[in-house]
Amino acid sequence: MFNDSTMSDGHKKENMKENIGSSDSPKEREEWEIQRDLAKTEGDAAYRSRSFSSAISHYSEAIAVDPDNVKLYSNRSAAYLSDNQKSKALADARKCVELDPKFVKGYSRLATSLLSLSRFAEARKTYKEMEALGNCSGIDMAKKGLEECRLLEQKHCERQKKRNLRLQLWPLGLLMVLVKQKIKKMMKTTCLMTSLMT
Questions:
Q1: What is the pTM of this model?
Q2: CATH code at position 96
């Protein structure tokens, strides 16, 4: 059927799990598979309803039962990122690529997590690695990702330039405020003196 020696460990385990759980009869499935699938299904539902912390919790339960399942890490990475837990999203995305170096979505999650952290060079490298996998959908995703990376990096640079300019001009702005206050004070004094003289 297939040669185990040419497959990565992640693919071997995935194929074994698919073969074990291929029957529709719940009696033939292992208890851990049922627990994993139930937790994943609940996580998927929570994610769709935008209850990200609940989704994270359910995916974590599923990972506790099946710690080598790349799709669970991928889904939890997406939930972490949606919940603005960028570093945790990055850790799970890295785990995806570690478990299955040919899993295109893992590279996509990794690059997206890196972009969220403004780590543009690493994101660009990840998209190029994804492109090198040769998977048609991966190549398209990588090209779009590289363009998104370029645009985000450009916007980030523009924001940094504006911020730096504001920091450089801050003393001038403070000086102008002080000058305006002094002018107002002088005008009040002048008005007061003029009214006293008349």
A1: 0.66
A2: 1.25.40.10
- pLDDT (tens digit per residue) in 43-67: 999 999 999 999 999 999 999 999 9
Residue 191 lies in a domain: no
Residue type, 54: S
Return the axis-axis angle of helices 86-99 and 70-82, rounded to nearest 10°: 160
Residue pair 29/11 in contact by the 8 Å Cβ criterion: no
Q: Which two tokens stand for residue 115?
A: 């972009």
pLDDT, tens digit, for every residue of 106-122?
999 999 999 999 999 99
> Which secondary-structure segment (H or E) carries 126?
helix 120-132
Q: Tell me the C-alpha distance between 17 and 30, whole Å.
A: 10
**Residue 67, domain extent:** 4-171
C-alpha dihedral (150, 154, 155, 157), degrees to nearest 10: 140
The Cα–Cα gap between 196 and 188 comes to: 12
Which residue carries 């048609």 as its tokens? Answer: 136
Domains held by the chain: number: 1
Residue 74 and residue 103 in contact, taking contact as beta carbons nearer than 8 Å: yes
